[in-house]
Amino acid sequence: MAEFKDAKIEFTVEAKLGTLEWKKSPNSHITLKDASEKSPCAMECKTKPCTTVCPAKVYEWHEDGKKVIVNYENCIECGACRMLCPFDNIVCDWPEGGMGVKYKLG
Ligand code: SF4
Ligand code: SF4
């Protein structure tokens, strides 16, 4: 008699992201209200949740320049960053029509 074992399939976030496609807009749909050296990112925000919560790693803290870099091209439009900034410093709109991430169904 054949023996069947449970197949364990693991997907990492990175592997899932690798299945997506993007039509990259030349214009960012995400901006920081204050990106200056006196911004809340540089002066007040100790934990910088944007750099850890965003699943697509859109936000990167650069210690040298004391600023957050926004890699908007990687955005998967999950909407999390509309809520996560404790200083309300992120404006996240939708990409221009036809641009941005492309989800495949099936
Ligand atoms: S969470 Fe908001 S204030 Fe904090 S680093 Fe990110 S954008 Fe700046
Ligand atoms: S919408 Fe989601 S994927 Fe896009 S920047 Fe915000 S948290 Fe990251």
Main beta sheet: strand number and arrangement? 2 strands, antiparallel
Report the order of strands and helices. HEEHHEEHEE
CATH topology of one domain: Alpha-Beta Plaits
Distance between the termini: 34 Å
CATH class of one domain: Alpha Beta
Q: Kindly provide the radius of gyration, computed on alpha-carbon positions and rounded to a whole number of angstroms.
A: 18 Å
> So what's the overall shape?
globular
Determine the strand fraction and express it as a percent band.
15-25%
| Number of H- or I-type helical stretches | 4
* Poorly predicted residue ranges: none
Bound compounds, each kind once, are: iron/sulfur cluster
Strand order of the largest sheet: 1-6
- Give the helix proportion (percent range): 10-25%
Structural class: alpha+beta
For the record, the CATH architecture of one domain stands as 2-Layer Sandwich
Please describe the structure with a list of short key phrases separated by commas or semicolons.
106 residues, alpha+beta, Alpha-Beta Plaits, two-stranded antiparallel sheet, two-stranded antiparallel ribbon, 6 strands, 19% strand, binds iron/sulfur cluster
Can you summarize this structure?
The protein has helices at 13-17, 40-43, 50-53, 81-84; strands at residues 21-23, 30-32, 59-62, 67-70, 90-92, 100-102. It has 106 residues and is of the alpha+beta class.
